[in-house]
Design goal:
The protein is an alpha/beta fold. It has helices at residues 23-34, 71-82, 99-112, 174-177, 194-205; strands at 8-11, 44-47, 59-63, 87-91, 118-119, 157-161, 164-170. The protein has one domain (5-205): 3-Layer(aba) Sandwich (Rossmann fold), CATH 3.40.50. The chain is globular. This is Twin-arginine translocation pathway signal. It comes from Aquimarina atlantica.
């Protein structure tokens, strides 16, 4: 088995899981550029219903549409998180009603219980584990495109298991923000994937 870090995208039966297709390679490039991690630069797509997810150090789930886990998907999600896994869930929020967000939050409530998905303080370790983000989660240019509430969400939510984040949930659409070819990063004054590096490093070290 490879000892390299690899990025897992979770495939689920409902909704549209295959979004932000260039984001993983861009984020993986940043891990190579900024850290000493050994990195597999090829994204892996693994069905949430497959036991292969239990080999994954980090999982990503996103979409625009309804999230309604099957019985097996739900069981695997809960087992993975409770056993120390890390899931980064990001709302690709180009739908008016925030359907992905609302349905994902309902799934988390069904699995982990009411009010377990909570806002985390902007002083949380995840904002300083590698790069420093003094104001909490960096804003994105995507955030107001679909919600219709004209609110920039200045927080992230999380489910913590034994004092550690097991599920990190974003309404900020980082996936679309980071969805560009990594070779174009030189055109950006500040590399906006740096927060993604923090998320991965938190998942691996906390």
């Amino acid at each position: 088995m490879s000892n390299k870090f690899f990025f897992t995208r979770l495939q689920y039966e409902s909704g549209d899981w295959d979004v932000d297709q260039r984001m993983p390679s861009n984020l993986l490039n940043s891990l190579v550029e900024y850290t000493t991690l050994k990195v597999d630069t090829q994204e892996r797509i693994i069905a949430l219903s497959s036991d292969e997810i239990f080999k994954s150090p980090f999982c990503y789930i996103s979409g625009h549409k309804l999230v309604q886990f099957t019985k097996k998907e739900r069981e695997n999600f809960e087992k993975y998180v409770r056993n120390g896994g890390f899931v980064f869930a990001d709302d690709c929020n180009h739908d008016i009603d925030g359907l992905f967000s609302k349905s994902f939050e309902r799934q988390m409530e069904d699995i982990f219980g009411p009010r377990q998905l909570k806002k985390i303080p902007n002083t949380h370790e995840i904002y300083k584990v590698f790069f420093e983000f003094e104001d909490g989660p960096p804003t994105t240019s995507q955030e107001l495109n679909g919600w219709g509430d004209d609110i920039v969400h200045d927080y992230l939510k999380a489910i913590e298991i034994n004092g550690r984040i097991g599920v990190l949930f974003s309404n900020k659409d980082y996936g679309c923000e980071w969805d560009y070819d990594f070779r174009n990063k030189r055109w950006y004054k500040i590399d906006n994937t740096r927060f993604g590096v923090n998320i991965v490093m938190y998942a691996l070290t906390s």
